[in-house]
Amino acid sequence: MIIGTVKEIKNREYRVGLTPGAVYEYVKNGHEVLVETNAGVGSGFTDEDYINAGARIISTRDLVWEASNMIVKVKEPLAEEYKYLRKDLILYTYLHLAANKELTLALTKSGCTGVAYETIETADHLLPCLKPMSEVAGRLSAIYGSLLLTKERGGNGLLISGVPGTDRAKVTIIGAGVVGENALKLFVGLEADVTILDIDLNRLASIDKVYQNKVKTLYSTDENIKNSLRNADLVVGAVLIPGATAPKLIKRSYYSFMKKGSVIVDVAIDQGGSTEVSYATTHDNPTFVVDGIIHYCVANMPGIVPNTSSVALNNSTLKYGLLLANNSLEVAFSKSSALKKGLNTYNHKVYHEGVSSAFQLELSEF
Prior knowledge:
alpha/beta, 2 domains, 8-stranded mixed sheet, 7-stranded mixed sheet, Rossmann fold
């Protein structure tokens, strides 16, 4: 099979779909790998690194897309890339289709096989290819959120940790999954006053055990969310329903009793966001203000730490990418039920329930 990777064109997206180490593994398995010139430069990988790993460097993006049987990317194709989608192509990347009807229709119209990192799911409901980027985004939410609290960035002028004799910033994390737990880890280290909410009592019990009296855990109900938001200086939206639109747990009506100058970091923005006013922003213009509340809704947060992110991502995606490259779809899916759940589109049809439900499209079975 011919495997291709191209330079990402999303705003401030410096990650790359294949690292040189991953290229070497594909070549070792008998595949040809095409890499667009300078595709990995933003992540710290030169064309020479890829050549040494066995790849061919291709001068134009068009040629990589057209010659490849499978394209391995990081982010979903943008509108100017839809022209490359075709029936005999496997697109292996983050897709987040439940929040993107235009891309969903472009994939189904073309017949392209879309395999989404974020919906690959193991039997014990883990999301192995989403986890590394959730870890990065969760930790970045603490870093960026803390900066946005400063007066210079429009916040209410709080130091996240406080100092002796002053209040620590009050942080509310909605969702105790991978994003929430990684945000929590940094916020505790920064000595913030943290409350975390989830509907999984076992997960909350585990957090209680690890952090003891350093963290307040609450079962996630509307009332508990409202009470937590009332006191919060910084909120992290970290709820995920795999492949589906994120629930709007932070209502616009709640803003009336929230603190002016408080911050919402909406990590769920890839799946539509946790608030009723959220929309995707970019690293060039990352925030907007509604009713005095600062919203940070960058859809590719890990893109600004591309070396860490690209290596971590490839550590997780390579295993499933090799299954796709080494086998037919039928055989690959028979070998891995987790990979089969990554199938979102194929032969003009939708194969993921979350995407089907989001746009009332017919759900097919492979």
